[in-house]
Amino acid sequence: MWLGLSITPLYRQDWLLENVLVLPFIVGFALTFRRFPFSRVSTTLIFLFLCLHEIGAHYTYSLVPYDRWLEHFTGRPLDSIFGWQRNQYDRFVHFCFGLLLAYPIREIFVRVAQARGFWAYYLPLDVTMACSMLFELIEWGAAVAFGGDLGAAYLGTQGDPWDAHKDMALATLGAILAMLLTALINLRFQRDFAREWAESLRVKGKRPLGEEEIRRMMKP
Q1: I need a labelling partner for 190 at 20 to 30 A (CA). Which of 27, 55, 69, 129 fits?
Q2: What angle in degrees, to the nearest 10, is found between the helix axes of 148-155 and 119-146?
Q3: Tens digits of per-residue pLDDT, 150-199?
Q4: Cβ(13)–Cβ(150) under 8 Å?
């Protein structure tokens, strides 16, 4: 799919920018596959997100013709149904960023950091929000660095001054829904769900840290 969509993209320079972060991600994924093989669920979710991203990279996010596709299959464009005045594909992908990637992030926390209970749901949400914020900062920096039509195409605000805020909010909403669904499934099938949740919120270390810990470390 990547090879197919790399042929004659709508705006080659924007396509290159959109794939700058994809290449190291795929390389890292391949290099760590044997040491940390993701579940089929996580791998499928990552694959779906990358497919959506590559469609956006091929057309540039603000010009993906989803409205024309839906009109061809259903006879009515989606934008006219909801009264949208802008291309919503970038909003959809930001939502899917949280919805599709929060679970693979959770798998890392559970299997590597051994996160349990409350923290096994909160930390993936937190990291998803942080990654969404970091990407918006990268977009801003790239738009300032390149400027002109390329910067505008990569940023893709379509004239909305609150574009970055809405994108981060949608990614957060997607991650919340993913973690709620995961929690509901675990609540249904995990016998010690309530006990694990309560145990995760219990204070394990009675001694305070901060200056107290520094004082202990400095003692001969």
Answers
A1: 129
A2: 160
A3: 767 666 667 778 888 999 999 999 999 999 999 999 999 999 999 999 99
A4: yes
